[in-house]
Amino acid sequence: MAPIDPDAVHPLLPTPYRFTNGTATLRVDPGRFAFTLAAATAPSEVLSAALARYRRIMFAWGSGSSPATAATTLTDCSVSVANSSDGSFQLGDDESYSLRVAADADCRLSARTVWGALRGLETLSQLVEYSPSDRWYELRKAPWQIDDKPAFVSRGVMVDTARHWLSVPALLRQIDALAYSRMNTLHWHASDEDAFPMGSTAFPALAARGSYASAVGVSAGLYSVADQEAVVQYARMRGVRVVLELDLPGHASSWALARPDLFATWRFLGQLIAEFGARFPDRVMHFGGDEVDASVRAWMREQGATDLRDVYVHFERRLHAAAAEHGKEVQTWADAFRRVHNASAHGRGPPLPRTAIAQEWGRWDEAGRAEMAAVVRSGGRAVRSSGFYFDGGYSTGGRATVWEEVINAQLVPPGLSAEEESRVLGAEACLWGEVADELFLDQKLWLRASVLAERLWTPHATIAAYCHHKPCSFDNRDLQPRMVKNRCRLVQRGILAQPYNTQIIPDRSRWQQCELWLPQNWSRRGAAGTAAVYMY
Amino acid sequence: MAPIDPDAVHPLLPTPYRFTNGTATLRVDPGRFAFTLAAATAPSEVLSAALARYRRIMFAWGSGSSPATAATTLTDCSVSVANSSDGSFQLGDDESYSLRVAADADCRLSARTVWGALRGLETLSQLVEYSPSDRWYELRKAPWQIDDKPAFVSRGVMVDTARHWLSVPALLRQIDALAYSRMNTLHWHASDEDAFPMGSTAFPALAARGSYASAVGVSAGLYSVADQEAVVQYARMRGVRVVLELDLPGHASSWALARPDLFATWRFLGQLIAEFGARFPDRVMHFGGDEVDASVRAWMREQGATDLRDVYVHFERRLHAAAAEHGKEVQTWADAFRRVHNASAHGRGPPLPRTAIAQEWGRWDEAGRAEMAAVVRSGGRAVRSSGFYFDGGYSTGGRATVWEEVINAQLVPPGLSAEEESRVLGAEACLWGEVADELFLDQKLWLRASVLAERLWTPHATIAAYCHHKPCSFDNRDLQPRMVKNRCRLVQRGILAQPYNTQIIPDRSRWQQCELWLPQNWSRRGAAGTAAVYMY
User: Which residues does UniProt mark as catalytic (chains A, B) (predicted)?
Assistant: First the structure.
């Protein structure tokens, strides 16, 4: 296969919903460039911070050296937002935007919400490219006219802080990477059998006894209340939801270290939901619900219950009710839906409420597709993680999910009505923590999660059109060069994404070796802009 | 499977040739501990530096807090070396040592060579363990009596600086990791079609025009003569050979950027071998020889040659002769051996000299085993890389080499005499650079290369004995806990090895979460002890 010049295609990942572009190259002057807020746009903390942040991101290589060309120069971009509310991004909030960059360098970004403006700023920042040989910034293929919105409302990754504790900067880095991919959900699988690392004002003993901190005898290894608030706030500023998962009842043996009486008291659960539900403002809380094990049996004994299935179904129903009292909708792994659904079908009690979200994680075979179809047909909502487990490779088995499987994935089971399809919310890449600590986190999630971002944001028809040879594979000449550029962007912005295979790029292209032109002071740029890449 | 306590087995990786141990725990006092040189041991720069270095490595957590126990305390270790020559470690040099730590804390390390002493110091450093909860150092399972030597003489990894340039600290980190694994060979695949990054006094244009530095327009991206000397010296101090590979004639199109007349002049090659052969003191130079392509056809046209096979065979024979003039033995990929061997068998000229080393890289099937058998039966030597390509996973195909394949690998083809078997020198894990830059290098090579270290150092009978269920797999209770500890050691020493699957470890064990008790100032500890982990 002939090599592909990454500059031959547009630089955007994901591909926008609709766009046209030309062939002109504009210069961008880092010293003069400014965002201007349209007069009708009300102030917003989130928007102001984003304008300053994206200016830093675009011009990370400093002031450059002004070239002596007569090219048209981009010196400002006008931003207008219809509704400046910026409390917290919630599932289904409008993320659309329009971005125009005219041939005369007139630049206008408009959006209905601050969240849409964030997505548009990311797109603009991907259009502005630094040339290390010229030491200057340029915006190629102008004029641009982009009208953009996502195909799916929920686009996320899951990280697991129970099997390996991840430092706060490592979590913030993933939020950065989500924003750089126009994704919007961090699913924080916080607790599991292995550890309960979440500090709590009402129940401090849970983490004091259940975290790695207590096991190792060090002060790190648990998330203070302030740590948790920092993660939520950092995500809010970037239009990312943080969906907290406290895995119940199957994976909760770490809780029992502090509270052997745990499952006997609904009051305890109510208080826990109240505290964490307030700290994590997302409407959705995740309560696990998979792989029910011995800890439930212990609870059954205390309750005098005899049928495991009935106890579990009872537990899930009460959990949904308890969450609803605190204004929360419940996401669980699909096990919970399946078991309650089966009980209902046999006349044993009501189904889960329609606000329930089932996360599919089994095989995406006929049974898996049928399960998701049943969820949305019954009025529930579904998120797919089947096939998007990114922890494989290098250990027993050796099989890793590859990007081709991600871009070619079918997301909606066949045979649904449009209304039912709309309840397939999207997908999540899951990175379980047994084989991934924070030193290996970035490489395992990215670049593959960026491909999931394309699959979830870009219309399926667009992807089908550039996949001339179906399914999309190693010979694809649209997505692949953009993956190469995107990987460079991620690394240059401090995300240690895995390199894409350089075999497809011309020899000695700057895109083959982007580690050689990282921004100044790169090693001191952590996720938060101040800390080291690794916090230790 | 029940969890395994990593402290239940000995902490050494690789397993020594012969050892006995007890059940006593000695305290080790970081403030008082000193190495003493036996009176008959002559001074050696390599040995002195190693004693200081291993003192730093063992006591990386600082002075600790002295416990108020009556346990016996290790305060010194006597080191004796019969022959203190330390010019450079060469293939086949003696690496044996004896280490005794008595129950009364009498510690004696003796070796024939400084290289053996280095291996023994590594073993001692693995016996001394830091406990983060006690904040103190201990040596468990004393008394120890270890008599050790490697099963194979060549134990290495290959890195590729042609597809991605790797910074000097990244190379030094790999040398560290080799020493920590009692491995002894860094095969430096320096040039390829993609780039020629090696600075040269005689031919500076090769790198000036063929490196990424020229392509990207930055000053990084090539190895100065001083860089190359620093790598060689760093490796010498750790008893590691650096086998330089200049890939000829198949993968040399990057050379032609500077010297289109390259292949027409043997004088050029002689000068190149003279310069690089002097800078890299290892007796072996590697000249590629695989995947012959169009550049050779161009040379054929100039030479008026018509049969590709004859030209190639002629080239390889002359290369061996040219290298011999400079005192060098030639390693190539097995292609060269196969083709010259075939020509010889058909009466077209002599075979390669007996000093030739063939590196097997094809499938380890019947044909692959037969090829290696033919190499050693004809008097040549062989190194196996078949099955040890560590670049797989995450990209097209998705299949990664797993540790079980490494530990269960057959290294010597069946049916050889003992004398023939002795010419199977060992093995090399290869990490090709298309999908691995220096941000992903450590994780891709380690931990799996540590398992290769065990396979190459430890007698096969020992491995067979602890693999009760053959082949060795996920249920192995000897190697797996040592992999867990070894991964912690590597991370704590600055190598970003991939985590081993924590499913096998008890919940909240300190070995599950060793990132929480890294040494102080860890983020500032690079390969050289001063630079950042990443040099940028």
Answer: 291 (proton donor)
Q: Does A407 touch chain B (CB under 8 A)?
A: no
CATH of domain A18-149: 3.30.379.10
Confidence of residue A233 (pLDDT cuts 50, 70, 90): very high
* Cβ-contact A380, A416 below 8 angstroms: no
Q: From the options 3.20.20.80, 3.20.20.70, 3.30.1950.10, 3.40.50.720, give the CATH code of A154-466.
A: 3.20.20.80
Task: Judge whether B358 and B336 are in contact, CB under 8 Å.
Answer: yes
| Integer Rg of chain B from CA | 24
For residue range A378-424, what is the model confidence (pLDDT) as tens digits? 999 999 999 999 987 765 566 788 888 999 999 999 999 999 999 99
Give whole-number Cα distances, B463 to A261, A295, B412, in Å.
Answer: 47, 38, 15
Taking CA A279 as the corner, what is the angle to CA A273 and CA A284, rounded to the nearest 5 degrees? 60
- The one catalytic residue among A45, A129, A275, A291: A291
Q: Inform me whether the C-beta atom of residue B266 falls under 8 Å from chain A C-beta atoms.
A: no
Q: Smallest CA–CA separation between B436 and chain A, in Å?
A: 6
Which structure tokens are listed for A493?
A: 């912005």
How far apart are alpha carbons A157 and A433 in whole angstroms? 13
Location of each CATH 3.20.20.80 domain in chain A: 154-466
Count contacts between A and B (CB, < 8 Å): 207
Chain A residues whose CB is inside 8 A of the B508 CB are 194-195, 210-212, 214-215, 254
Integer Cα distance of B124 and B142 in angstroms:
12
* Candidates B45, B229, B291, B515; catalytic one: B291
Instruction: Measure in Å the smallest separation between the Cα of A35 and chain B Cα atoms.
Output: 30
A218 contact residues in B (CB cutoff 8 A): 132, 516-517
CATH 3.30.379.10 domain span(s) along chain A: 18-149
Q: Which helix (H) or strand (E) holds A169?
A: helix A168-180
Asked if ipTM goes beyond 0.85, one says yes
Query: Helix, strand, or coil here: A309?
Result: helix
Best residue of A448, A493, A516 to probe chain B, by most B CBs closer than 10 Å: A516
Residues shown for chain B: 536
A438 is a catalytic site residue: no
A131 strand-pairing partners: A136
pLDDT score of A535 more than 50: no
Tokens of A311: 């106890």
Q: Quickly state the pLDDT bin for A527 (edges 50, 70, 90).
A: very low
